[in-house]
Fold this protein.
Amino acid sequence: MQFKDRIIIFIIIVFSFTADRLSKILILNFFYKNNFQDYYLNDFINLILVWNKGIAFGIFESETFFYHIITSLIFLILCFLFILIFTSKSKFESYSLAIILGGASGNFFDRIYYSAVPDFIDFHYKNYHWFTFNVSDILITLGVLSVLVFGIFQDKIKK
């Protein structure tokens, strides 16, 4: 991997992490200064502050011991992602993994700093609400989808 590619990867990780952190800082300040629990934006999106102490979608929220085990496993996964980024033979895959790493690092930071992850985007249609999520979750999802699409079309891309 060339030096230029490493710089691009570093920029992607830092940009992803920073976008997530800034969004959370702005939302937390907005909610605490205005004493809001939720904020109506339009018919499809609300801002609702939810502190997620579990893993994805609030699963396994109850036990402190389990929380620390999951946090340790997440750290190991982040390390593994870092290694994958620099051992991948594809720039596109490395960039996609960097997006995942940047987003996941944002949520990992929150788990360490707040002992919970602030989720605040409430996407809904009528009475159906999707899980509340944040910018990290968006980045992780985009990165995973990119890796999957690359994996599916890898042979066609190479040709």
